[in-house]
Protein backbone atom coordinates (compact mmCIF):
# COMPACT_ATOMS: atom_id res chain seq x y z
CA UNK A 1 0.00 0.00 0.00
CA UNK A 2 1.30 3.46 -0.90
CA UNK A 3 2.47 5.75 1.88
CA UNK A 4 -0.26 8.16 3.00
CA UNK A 5 0.08 11.68 1.62
CA UNK A 6 -0.42 12.89 5.21
CA UNK A 7 0.36 10.88 8.34
CA UNK A 8 -0.42 12.28 11.79
CA UNK A 9 0.74 10.28 14.81
CA UNK A 10 0.07 10.98 18.48
CA UNK A 11 -0.59 14.67 17.85
CA UNK A 12 -1.08 16.76 20.99
CA UNK A 13 -1.79 20.44 21.56
CA UNK A 14 -2.22 21.99 25.00
CA UNK A 15 -2.78 25.70 25.53
CA UNK A 16 -1.63 27.07 28.91
CA UNK A 17 -4.36 28.39 31.16
CA UNK A 18 -4.70 32.07 31.91
CA UNK A 19 -4.57 33.14 35.53
CA UNK A 20 -6.11 30.41 37.66
CA UNK A 21 -7.66 28.63 34.67
CA UNK A 22 -6.31 25.12 33.96
CA UNK A 23 -4.56 24.28 30.66
CA UNK A 24 -6.78 23.43 27.68
CA UNK A 25 -6.13 20.26 25.70
CA UNK A 26 -7.16 21.10 22.16
CA UNK A 27 -5.80 17.90 20.62
CA UNK A 28 -5.24 14.61 22.41
CA UNK A 29 -3.31 11.70 20.88
CA UNK A 30 -4.64 12.23 17.35
CA UNK A 31 -3.75 9.56 14.79
CA UNK A 32 -4.88 10.14 11.21
CA UNK A 33 -3.74 8.97 7.76
CA UNK A 34 -4.94 10.70 4.59
CA UNK A 35 -4.80 8.90 1.24
CA UNK A 36 -3.56 10.58 -1.90
CA UNK A 37 -6.39 11.86 -4.12
CA UNK A 38 -9.24 11.43 -1.64
CA UNK A 39 -11.74 13.89 -0.22
CA UNK A 40 -11.73 13.52 3.54
CA UNK A 41 -14.40 15.22 5.63
CA UNK A 42 -13.56 16.05 9.24
CA UNK A 43 -16.71 16.58 11.27
CA UNK A 44 -17.05 17.88 14.80
CA UNK A 45 -18.95 20.42 16.90
CA UNK A 46 -17.59 23.90 17.65
CA UNK A 47 -14.45 23.66 19.75
CA UNK A 48 -13.82 20.03 18.79
CA UNK A 49 -10.27 20.71 17.54
CA UNK A 50 -10.82 20.81 13.76
CA UNK A 51 -9.19 24.19 13.15
CA UNK A 52 -6.35 23.44 15.60
CA UNK A 53 -5.59 20.22 13.71
CA UNK A 54 -5.53 22.04 10.38
CA UNK A 55 -3.39 24.80 11.86
CA UNK A 56 -0.85 22.24 13.08
CA UNK A 57 -0.48 20.71 9.61
CA UNK A 58 -0.29 24.14 7.93
CA UNK A 59 2.37 25.43 10.31
CA UNK A 60 0.09 27.93 12.02
CA UNK A 61 -0.06 26.05 15.35
CA UNK A 62 2.95 24.49 17.08
CA UNK A 63 2.03 21.04 18.44
CA UNK A 64 2.85 20.09 22.01
CA UNK A 65 3.66 16.53 20.98
CA UNK A 66 3.41 13.96 18.20
CA UNK A 67 4.61 13.93 14.60
CA UNK A 68 3.27 15.07 11.24
CA UNK A 69 4.59 13.64 7.98
CA UNK A 70 3.42 14.90 4.59
CA UNK A 71 4.66 13.78 1.16
CA UNK A 72 7.10 11.50 2.99
CA UNK A 73 8.71 14.44 4.83
CA UNK A 74 8.77 15.30 8.53
CA UNK A 75 6.98 18.63 8.95
CA UNK A 76 9.20 19.61 11.90
CA UNK A 77 12.38 19.19 9.81
CA UNK A 78 11.27 20.11 6.28
CA UNK A 79 8.43 22.54 6.94
CA UNK A 80 9.32 24.84 4.03
CA UNK A 81 9.13 22.02 1.48
CA UNK A 82 5.95 20.63 3.01
CA UNK A 83 4.16 23.96 3.38
CA UNK A 84 4.87 24.90 -0.25
CA UNK A 85 2.72 21.95 -1.35
CA UNK A 86 -0.24 22.69 0.97
CA UNK A 87 -3.12 25.09 0.34
CA UNK A 88 -5.44 26.45 3.01
CA UNK A 89 -8.82 28.13 2.72
CA UNK A 90 -9.32 29.59 6.22
CA UNK A 91 -12.59 30.58 7.84
CA UNK A 92 -11.63 34.25 8.07
CA UNK A 93 -10.10 36.60 5.52
CA UNK A 94 -6.85 38.21 6.71
CA UNK A 95 -5.66 40.21 3.70
CA UNK A 96 -5.04 43.77 2.57
CA UNK A 97 -8.59 44.91 1.85
CA UNK A 98 -7.30 47.66 -0.46
CA UNK A 99 -5.52 45.13 -2.68
CA UNK A 100 -7.14 44.05 -5.94
CA UNK A 101 -8.28 40.50 -6.59
CA UNK A 102 -5.68 39.71 -9.25
CA UNK A 103 -2.80 41.30 -7.35
CA UNK A 104 -3.75 39.37 -4.23
CA UNK A 105 -3.70 36.06 -6.11
CA UNK A 106 -0.34 36.87 -7.74
CA UNK A 107 1.08 37.71 -4.31
CA UNK A 108 -0.05 34.36 -2.87
CA UNK A 109 1.57 32.54 -5.79
CA UNK A 110 4.86 34.34 -5.31
CA UNK A 111 4.75 33.85 -1.55
CA UNK A 112 5.34 30.12 -2.07
CA UNK A 113 8.13 30.62 -4.59
CA UNK A 114 6.08 29.95 -7.70
CA UNK A 115 7.05 31.92 -10.82
CA UNK A 116 4.64 34.45 -12.29
CA UNK A 117 2.10 32.79 -14.56
CA UNK A 118 -0.65 35.15 -15.77
CA UNK A 119 -2.37 32.40 -17.76
CA UNK A 120 -2.64 30.13 -14.70
CA UNK A 121 -3.94 32.97 -12.52
CA UNK A 122 -6.53 33.82 -15.16
CA UNK A 123 -7.59 30.16 -15.28
CA UNK A 124 -8.09 30.08 -11.50
CA UNK A 125 -10.04 33.34 -11.48
CA UNK A 126 -12.29 32.23 -14.34
CA UNK A 127 -12.99 28.88 -12.67
CA UNK A 128 -14.29 30.76 -9.62
CA UNK A 129 -16.21 33.41 -11.60
CA UNK A 130 -13.76 36.08 -10.42
CA UNK A 131 -12.23 37.17 -13.72
CA UNK A 132 -14.63 40.07 -14.15
CA UNK A 133 -13.73 41.20 -10.63
CA UNK A 134 -9.95 40.97 -11.10
CA UNK A 135 -9.39 44.73 -10.80
CA UNK A 136 -11.82 45.21 -7.88
CA UNK A 137 -10.49 45.97 -4.41
CA UNK A 138 -11.23 43.24 -1.91
CA UNK A 139 -13.10 45.65 0.35
CA UNK A 140 -15.67 46.19 -2.41
CA UNK A 141 -16.59 42.52 -2.75
CA UNK A 142 -19.58 40.72 -1.29
CA UNK A 143 -19.08 38.06 1.35
CA UNK A 144 -19.52 35.29 -1.22
CA UNK A 145 -16.97 36.84 -3.58
CA UNK A 146 -14.48 37.22 -0.73
CA UNK A 147 -14.90 33.53 -0.02
CA UNK A 148 -14.10 32.79 -3.66
CA UNK A 149 -10.96 34.91 -3.36
CA UNK A 150 -9.82 32.84 -0.37
CA UNK A 151 -10.13 29.70 -2.48
CA UNK A 152 -8.28 31.33 -5.39
CA UNK A 153 -5.44 32.35 -3.06
CA UNK A 154 -5.19 28.78 -1.74
CA UNK A 155 -5.02 27.42 -5.30
CA UNK A 156 -2.56 30.03 -6.59
CA UNK A 157 0.55 27.89 -5.96
CA UNK A 158 -1.06 24.65 -7.24
CA UNK A 159 -0.98 22.67 -3.98
CA UNK A 160 -1.09 18.88 -3.82
CA UNK A 161 -2.97 18.93 -0.50
CA UNK A 162 -5.79 21.41 0.10
CA UNK A 163 -7.48 22.22 3.41
CA UNK A 164 -10.95 23.76 3.31
CA UNK A 165 -11.91 25.01 6.77
CA UNK A 166 -15.67 25.66 6.70
CA UNK A 167 -15.43 26.88 3.07
CA UNK A 168 -19.17 27.45 2.60
CA UNK A 169 -20.04 28.90 6.00
CA UNK A 170 -22.36 31.86 5.53
CA UNK A 171 -22.55 31.67 1.74
CA UNK A 172 -25.65 31.24 -0.39
CA UNK A 173 -26.79 27.98 -1.97
CA UNK A 174 -25.61 28.94 -5.47
CA UNK A 175 -22.08 29.67 -4.31
CA UNK A 176 -22.03 26.48 -2.26
CA UNK A 177 -22.89 24.46 -5.38
CA UNK A 178 -20.22 26.28 -7.38
CA UNK A 179 -17.68 25.36 -4.74
CA UNK A 180 -18.75 21.73 -4.82
CA UNK A 181 -18.14 21.74 -8.58
CA UNK A 182 -14.73 23.30 -8.04
CA UNK A 183 -13.84 20.65 -5.45
CA UNK A 184 -14.88 17.90 -7.89
CA UNK A 185 -12.64 19.47 -10.53
CA UNK A 186 -9.70 19.59 -8.13
CA UNK A 187 -10.17 15.93 -7.22
CA UNK A 188 -10.13 15.06 -10.93
CA UNK A 189 -6.79 16.88 -11.12
CA UNK A 190 -5.37 14.68 -8.34
CA UNK A 191 -5.54 17.19 -5.48
CA UNK A 192 -6.11 15.65 -2.05
CA UNK A 193 -8.76 17.58 -0.10
CA UNK A 194 -9.49 17.74 3.62
CA UNK A 195 -12.78 19.44 4.35
CA UNK A 196 -14.29 20.63 7.62
CA UNK A 197 -17.91 21.68 7.49
CA UNK A 198 -21.05 22.36 9.52
CA UNK A 199 -23.11 21.39 6.47
CA UNK A 200 -23.02 17.65 6.89
CA UNK A 201 -24.81 17.16 3.57
CA UNK A 202 -21.56 18.38 1.98
CA UNK A 203 -19.69 15.47 3.53
CA UNK A 204 -22.48 13.08 2.61
CA UNK A 205 -22.44 14.34 -0.99
CA UNK A 206 -18.71 14.58 -1.62
CA UNK A 207 -16.48 12.75 0.86
CA UNK A 208 -14.79 9.41 0.28
CA UNK A 209 -14.03 9.02 3.98
CA UNK A 210 -15.29 10.72 7.11
CA UNK A 211 -13.66 11.35 10.47
CA UNK A 212 -15.45 12.54 13.60
CA UNK A 213 -13.55 14.58 16.19
CA UNK A 214 -14.80 15.83 19.55
CA UNK A 215 -12.98 17.41 22.49
CA UNK A 216 -9.68 17.00 20.68
CA UNK A 217 -10.01 13.25 20.15
CA UNK A 218 -10.78 11.28 17.00
CA UNK A 219 -13.89 9.19 17.66
CA UNK A 220 -14.08 7.35 14.35
CA UNK A 221 -12.60 7.28 10.85
CA UNK A 222 -14.13 5.15 8.12
CA UNK A 223 -15.16 5.06 4.48
CA UNK A 224 -18.39 7.02 4.20
CA UNK A 225 -20.38 4.14 2.68
CA UNK A 226 -19.07 1.66 5.26
CA UNK A 227 -19.96 4.07 8.06
CA UNK A 228 -23.48 4.52 6.71
CA UNK A 229 -23.87 0.74 6.50
CA UNK A 230 -22.50 -0.11 9.94
CA UNK A 231 -23.95 2.78 11.93
CA UNK A 232 -27.01 3.73 9.89
CA UNK A 233 -30.44 2.72 11.14
CA UNK A 234 -34.00 2.49 9.88
CA UNK A 235 -36.62 4.35 11.89
CA UNK A 236 -40.36 3.72 11.51
CA UNK A 237 -43.46 5.04 13.26
CA UNK A 238 -46.85 3.33 12.97
CA UNK A 239 -49.78 5.66 13.73
CA UNK A 240 -52.22 3.26 15.42
CA UNK A 241 -56.00 3.60 15.20
CA UNK A 242 -56.45 2.35 18.78
CA UNK A 243 -53.87 2.74 21.54
CA UNK A 244 -51.90 -0.26 22.76
CA UNK A 245 -51.17 -0.72 26.46
CA UNK A 246 -48.28 -3.07 25.75
CA UNK A 247 -46.44 -4.52 22.76
CA UNK A 248 -47.82 -7.92 21.68
CA UNK A 249 -45.34 -10.76 22.15
CA UNK A 250 -45.59 -11.67 18.44
CA UNK A 251 -43.89 -8.39 17.37
CA UNK A 252 -41.73 -7.70 20.44
CA UNK A 253 -38.08 -7.11 19.51
CA UNK A 254 -35.13 -4.85 20.25
CA UNK A 255 -35.66 -1.25 19.16
CA UNK A 256 -39.47 -1.36 19.40
CA UNK A 257 -41.43 0.79 21.85
CA UNK A 258 -44.70 2.65 22.32
CA UNK A 259 -45.09 6.44 22.41
CA UNK A 260 -47.88 9.06 22.49
CA UNK A 261 -49.84 7.15 25.17
CA UNK A 262 -49.78 4.00 23.08
CA UNK A 263 -50.95 5.65 19.86
CA UNK A 264 -47.58 5.33 18.09
CA UNK A 265 -45.52 2.18 17.66
CA UNK A 266 -41.88 3.16 17.10
CA UNK A 267 -39.04 1.06 15.71
CA UNK A 268 -35.33 1.78 15.31
CA UNK A 269 -32.93 -0.89 14.15
CA UNK A 270 -31.25 -2.66 11.28
CA UNK A 271 -28.38 -1.03 9.43
CA UNK A 272 -27.63 1.08 6.39
CA UNK A 273 -27.73 -2.02 4.19
CA UNK A 274 -31.52 -2.12 4.44
CA UNK A 275 -31.92 -4.77 7.15
CA UNK A 276 -34.15 -2.42 9.11
CA UNK A 277 -36.69 -2.22 6.29
CA UNK A 278 -37.09 -6.00 6.45
CA UNK A 279 -37.95 -5.70 10.14
CA UNK A 280 -40.45 -2.91 9.41
CA UNK A 281 -42.14 -5.09 6.77
CA UNK A 282 -42.31 -7.99 9.24
CA UNK A 283 -43.84 -5.73 11.92
CA UNK A 284 -46.45 -4.44 9.43
CA UNK A 285 -47.41 -7.98 8.39
CA UNK A 286 -47.69 -9.13 12.01
CA UNK A 287 -49.86 -6.13 12.94
CA UNK A 288 -52.20 -6.99 10.06
CA UNK A 289 -52.35 -10.65 11.13
CA UNK A 290 -53.17 -9.61 14.71
CA UNK A 291 -55.89 -7.23 13.49
CA UNK A 292 -54.10 -4.16 14.86
CA UNK A 293 -54.98 -1.33 12.48
CA UNK A 294 -52.84 1.72 11.73
CA UNK A 295 -53.49 4.76 9.55
CA UNK A 296 -49.95 5.63 8.44
CA UNK A 297 -46.31 4.51 8.47
CA UNK A 298 -43.44 7.01 8.49
CA UNK A 299 -40.12 5.40 7.50
CA UNK A 300 -36.70 7.08 7.26
CA UNK A 301 -33.08 6.01 7.02
CA UNK A 302 -30.33 7.53 9.15
CA UNK A 303 -28.39 10.33 7.50
CA UNK A 304 -24.71 11.01 8.09
CA UNK A 305 -25.87 13.84 10.37
CA UNK A 306 -27.80 11.36 12.53
CA UNK A 307 -24.71 9.18 12.81
CA UNK A 308 -22.53 12.17 13.69
CA UNK A 309 -24.91 13.38 16.41
CA UNK A 310 -25.18 9.89 17.91
CA UNK A 311 -21.41 9.47 17.97
CA UNK A 312 -20.86 12.76 19.77
CA UNK A 313 -23.76 12.39 22.20
CA UNK A 314 -23.70 8.67 22.94
CA UNK A 315 -19.98 8.01 23.44
CA UNK A 316 -19.03 10.07 26.51
CA UNK A 317 -16.44 7.51 27.55
CA UNK A 318 -14.47 8.38 24.41
CA UNK A 319 -15.15 12.09 24.14
CA UNK A 320 -14.63 12.93 27.82
UniProtKB/TrEMBL annotation:
The keyword Nucleotide-binding applies. Keywords: ATP-binding, Nucleotide-binding, Transport. SMART domains: AAA (SM00382). SUPFAM superfamilies: P-loop containing nucleoside triphosphate hydrolases. The keyword Cell cycle does not apply. Residues 6-240 form the ABC transporter domain. Pfam families: ABC_tran (PF00005). InterPro entries: AAA+_ATPase, ABC_transporter-like_ATP-bd, ABC_transporter-like_CS, ABC_transporter_ATP-binding, P-loop_NTPase. GO terms for molecular function: ATP binding; ATP hydrolysis activity. This is ABC transporter ATP-binding protein. The lineage of its organism: Bacteria, Pseudomonadati, Pseudomonadota, Alphaproteobacteria, Sphingomonadales.
